Every structure is written in structure tokens, then in C-alpha cells.
Amino acid sequence: MKNKIFMYLFFFAVLFILFQYMNEKTIFESQEKKIASLTEKFSKAEDSISVLTNRVSELNYFTLLGNQNAMDYLESTGREAAAVEAFISDAIYDQNLVSGGNPLVPFDGMNGAMLVNKIKFLNHKWLLADFSDGTYWGEMLLEYSFNEAHEMELHTLASLLYPAN
Fold first, then answer.
1. Which residues contact 90 (CB under 8 A, 6 or more apart)?
2. What is the model's pLDDT at position 110?
3. All structural domains of the chain with their residue ranges
4. How far apart are the first and last CA of the chain?
């Protein structure tokens, strides 16, 4: 009788060990698939980040803070590029407060005053500005410089007004 109980316990232990082995093997294979899937997703994400980083680098080439030559020029005149950018941006946006619209915009607004909405610095000399009166909009190329008295000068070089739809 004792032998039969030990034999049943032995078979039960073998079945239990076999069940545990199969269960753990299934869990292990499932985890391996998840790891492989996540590794592939991570690799794709790294590639996407690399592509986007290169794209941002290309887009920043024509910016004041992305152009080392422009920053070197401003530093040689004793100015910081970020400070120049902030100063000129503030000066342009402040001209929006002039009655009749921003005097830098060479067009009269048809549905209100033409105001500068956005500015993008190209380098130490030029910037692009977007303007609108709420219905009509356009863009202009501005030249900025500092004269010998260290005063800022702004000149509109070219502009365009988009046709209304």
C-alpha cells in the first residue's frame, strides 16, 4: 500500500513538473515574442528619430540661431544672436500697435489693419514676416541692420499679397 501511494505521488509529481515545464515554456516563448516585437518597434523609433533630427538640422540651417556664420558675425559686433532676435521681434511686433497697421507692411488692409503675425529669421541680415488683416494675408522679406549709432534699421525688401479665395 505504501508503495502504491509513493508511486501515485511520484506520477503526480512527474505530471506536476511536466505541467510546470510546459507552462513556463509557453510563458518564455510569449515573452521572447514580446521582446522581439518591442526591439523592432524600438529600432523603427530610433530610425524615425534619426530622420527627424536630420530634418530639423536641415530646417535650422536658414535660421539665425542655426547659422554659425551669422552668429559669429553678430558676436563680432558685440551682440548676442538670441538677444538680437528677441529685440528685433519685439520691435516689429510693437509696430503692430501703430494706428493704421504695421508701417513695415507695404499693403493697406482691406478688412482692418495689416499686422505682422509671425517672423522667421534667416540670418544676421534678413528675416521673413507673415502679415494679415484677418482676411487677406501675405509675406515680406525684411532687411535689418544696426547703424553706427547702434540703432536698428528695418527695410522691406520684397513683399507679396496672396489672392483671396
1. none
2. 85
3. 2-61, 63-161
4. 98
In this predicted structure, what is the pLDDT of residue 163?
A: 86
Measure Cα distances from 123 to 13, 82, 127, 128, 145 in Å.
79, 12, 7, 10, 11
pLDDT the model gives residue 129: 96
Rg (CA), the chain: 34
Chain-centroid distance, C-alpha 13 = 62
Task: List strands edge to edge, sheet with 126-132.
Answer: 115-121, 126-132, 137-146, 152-161
Q: Give the separation between CA 90 and CA 124, rounded to whole angstroms.
A: 16
Q: Residues 20-40: pLDDT tens digits?
A: 989 899 999 999 999 999 999
* Neighbour-count burial for 21-31, b at 16+ CB within 10 Å, e otherwise: eeeeeeeeeee
Pick out the chain residues at pLDDT < 70. Answer: 165
